[in-house]
Amino acid sequence: MFADYRGAMVLYRDEGVVLRVQKLGEADRIITLLTKRHGRVRAVAKGVRRTRSKFGATVEPFSHVDVQLYEGRSLDIVTQAESITSYGDGLVQDYGRYTAGTAVLETAERLTAEEGEPSLRLFLLVLGALRALSERDPSLVLDAFLLRAMSVSGYAPALEECARCAAAGPHRSFSVPAGGVVCAACRPPGASTPSPVALSLMSALLEGDWDAAEATDARARRDASGLTAAHLQWHLERGLRSLPLVERA
Hints:
Elements: E1 11-24, E2 28-35, E3 39-45, E4 63-70, E5 76-86, H1 88-91, H2 95-111, H3 120-132, H4 138-153, E6 173-175, E7 180-182, H5 196-207, H6 210-214, H7 218-236
Helix pairs in contact: 2-3, 2-4, 3-4, 4-5, 4-7, 5-7
C-alpha cells in the first residue's frame, strides 16, 4: 500500500473476486469485489463499457483479478486490473454451474455486510468453490460452500450435538430457528425429521469428505440442500435471489 502523507488519495493493490457489476452513467461501472486483504470493496471502473477499454472484460463477475485502486470517500476507483483467472468463461456455458456460481457470489456479498472488513477465509472459500464448480457436482459444491461460509461467519448449523442443550447425538430432528439438530427433549414444534443420510451429507460437505458426499443419492441431496438453504436464509433474514434458480437433483 502506498500512503500519501499530505492528505491526497491512498493507492493500494490487492487480489479480488468480482462479485457483481452495475452500470454507472454511459461508460462506467460500479464493481463489487471480495478482496484478499481489504474485505468487500465497491469501486468505480471508469470507461469499462467503451469498446476501447483496456480492462473492461477483466472486471466481470466470476473473475479473479489483481487490482490497483485509489481510496475514495464513498467509492474507490479502479486504476489497473489484470486477470489472474476468469472462471466465468467455463461457467456461462452450463446453466447448472452458472446458477450455482451466481449463488456463491451473492452469498459471499451478503455475508460481508461491512465494507473493508477483512475476510481472508471467505475469500479463499469463494475461490475454492469457483474452481470446484468445473470439476464436481455444482449442487454439492454450492452446499459445501454455503455450509463452510456459514461456519466462517459463526452461523454453522449444529449437526452432531443438540443445538439447545448440547446433548451428544445422533439426533433425528432439525430446527432452523433452534440452530440445527435437536434432541427429543428440546424438539420445538415445527421441527423437521430429515433422513440420517441427509444429515451425514451435510457433515461430509462441511468437513470436505467428497467421497462420502458423492456416494449419496438424489433424495438425500435434496433434503440436505433444503436444510442448508433454509438455515442460511434464516440467519440472513431474507432470501437469496439466486437460490431458486439453482438446478437440484
